[in-house]
Amino acid sequence: MNQNKMLLLEDGSVCYGAGFGSGESRIFEIVFNTSPVGYQEIISDPSYTDQGVVMAYPLIGNYGIAAEDFETKTPTIGALIVREYNDEPSNFRSMQTLDDVMKAYGIVGISGVDTRWLVRRIRDYGSCRAMITDSTADIETALEEVRSFRLPTDAVARVSRKAAEFYRSEKQLYHVVAVDCGMKENILRSLLKRGCDVTVVPYNTPAEEILRLKPDGVFLSNGPGNPEDVPELIDTVRALHGAVPIFGICLGHQILALSYGAKTYKLKFGHRGGNHPIKNLAADRVEITSQNHSYAVDADSLSDTQLQVTHINLLDNTVEGAACPGDKAFGVQYHPESAPGPQDSAYLFDEFIRLMKEEK
Predict the structure, then answer these.
(1) Which of 3, 57, 246, 311 is within CB 3.0–4.6 Å of 36 for a Cys-Cys bond?
(2) Where do the DSSP E strands lie in the chain?
(3) pLDDT tens figures, 81-138
(4) Is the separation of the CB atoms in 248 and 101 below 8 Å?
(5) CA separation for the pair 14, 180 (Å, rounded)
(6) Burial letters for 254-282: b for 16+ Cβ neighbours within 10 Å, e otherwise?
(7) CA distances in angstroms from 283 to 236, 286, 357, listed in the order given
């Protein structure tokens, strides 16, 4: 294998491997994902903006790329780090190779590295800054560049739509205004197939403008980065309390919690993958979920709010869901639309429909 690329962590750790995708150098926050499938959905999930993802599953690229499986039109992931890359996919749905797509969107990749070691290191020491560059680069110079790099705080602004877009469903039972912080396509599909017309608006749309659209409910999407980086959206959601049912996923859940006065914090290495067990406290039932986030809602801070915990993570006991029944508002930290992942939690979209039906 031609070891023409170097992966450099901010602690000075170095891995060498073969480059694929874009040939440029890139600095990012390194994280890991435990999903065995779904690399196309992962590279096209806007929540991975500015992050380099280590795939725990060893073989990536083997089923190629299908045109209808993208989660956004313009992928913004920072990098992809894999053990073994396969550039000869076997899949009747495949239209391109993963390498083709990564080149087209400027996504850097490195293969042939020890991803088991990388996952353990991130697990033990936490996510950190890292860089993929040429293997011939001067390590000390590159390390200084990595350590001085400041991770961007404008990720939501970069991935959000710049203007409102309307999508009509077949049944047209409800009208949902979806606030786009980096919304996955399968969220839109999940709402449309349940008879919701959807108006997707930019993340910084004021509450008055949202209410002028006469929604039956407001949806707060997933997205990248720290929820405290979008204070204008927190204020908007606060102004919507009690006006219409509200449903938040991932970043949207964190924004909802902050709007009620709760606090959030950054996890050591986050939750990413399609195999995370959570407990639905009301139903006393365990669900396997798909997750992708670096931040979580502080459980202790919820005691001073109107929110009550509805779901918890069984791996680390973090908050996975919260609701204010009086305002018909709720959110979950994980992804009920999955893509990729299990379908255990798709009922949450039906719960949103039920709240809108009651309000009508």
Answers:
(1) 57
(2) 5-9, 14-21, 26-33, 51-55, 59-60, 79-81, 84-85, 108-111, 128-134, 165-167, 174-180, 196-202, 217-220, 246-249, 264-280, 285-297, 308-313, 319-324, 329-332
(3) 999 999 999 999 999 999 999 999 999 999 999 999 999 999 999 999 999 999 999 9
(4) no
(5) 37
(6) bbbbbbbebbbeeeebbbbbbebebbbee
(7) 31, 9, 22
- Residues 55, 80 contacting (CB under 8 angstroms): yes
The DSSP call for residue 204 is T
CB within 8 Å of 261: residues ≥ 6 apart: 301, 304, 305
Per DSSP, the three-state class of 321 is strand
Give me the sign of the Cα torsion angle 250, 255, 256, 260: positive
Collect contacts of 85-91 with beta carbons under 8 A, ≥24 apart.
Answer: 85/18, 85/20, 85/60, 85/61, 85/109, 85/111, 85/112, 86/59, 86/60, 86/61, 86/62, 87/20, 87/61, 89/61, 89/62, 89/63, 89/64, 89/65, 90/62, 90/63, 90/64, 91/63, 91/64, 91/66
Dihedral of CA atoms 37, 41, 44, 48 in degrees, nearest 10, equals -70
pTM of the model: 0.96
Cα 317 to Cα 112: distance, rounded to the nearest angstrom: 35
pLDDT at 1: 72
Summary count for the chain: helices (H), strands (E) = 10, 19
Measured CA to CA, the distance from residue 69 to residue 138 in angstroms comes to: 39
Q: What is the dihedral of CA 201, 203, 205, 210, to 10 degrees?
A: 50
Sequence-distant (6+) residues with CB within 8 A of 359 are 216, 217, 244, 245, 328
Backbone angles phi, psi at 234, to 5 degrees: -60, -45
Q: Please list the active-site residues.
A: 250, 335, 337
The mean per-residue pLDDT over the stretch 230-241 comes to 98
300 close to 306: Cβ distance less than 8 angstroms:
no
